[in-house]
Design goal:
Helix content: 55-70%
Strand content: under 5%
Structural class: mainly alpha
Largest sheet: none
Shape: elongated
Number of strands: 0
Number of domains: 1
Length: about 80
């Protein structure tokens, strides 16, 4: 899944010149509500392992997208680094 997501964001970076990107909106909802509690799509109730596996893949996918943008697109698209701390 990480490779598929990486290909998708690479395509998005090539097609759109945007200074600020967000990789996943509300990853907790995706991980817990979708794969832990099962209250959102895809409705899988696997609180012991499912939500953790999804979280792991979300983190890996986010990191891959960030590194792709940082190394290949930030300089040509004048992307900004955000420090929200």
């Amino acid at each position: 899944m990480v490779e598929i997501y990486s290909d998708m964001v690479d395509c998005g970076f090539r097609l759109f010149q945007v200074k600020l990107w967000i990789t996943f909106n509300e990853p907790f909802v995706t991980a817990w509500d979708g794969y832990g509690a099962g209250s959102h799509a895809p409705g899988i109730m696997s609180p012991a392992t499912g939500s953790y596996e999804v979280t792991h893949n979300l983190i890996l996918s986010h990191a891959e997208a960030w590194h792709t943008y940082d190394s290949e697109f930030r300089s040509t698209q004048n992307g900004e680094r955000q420090n929200n701390c």
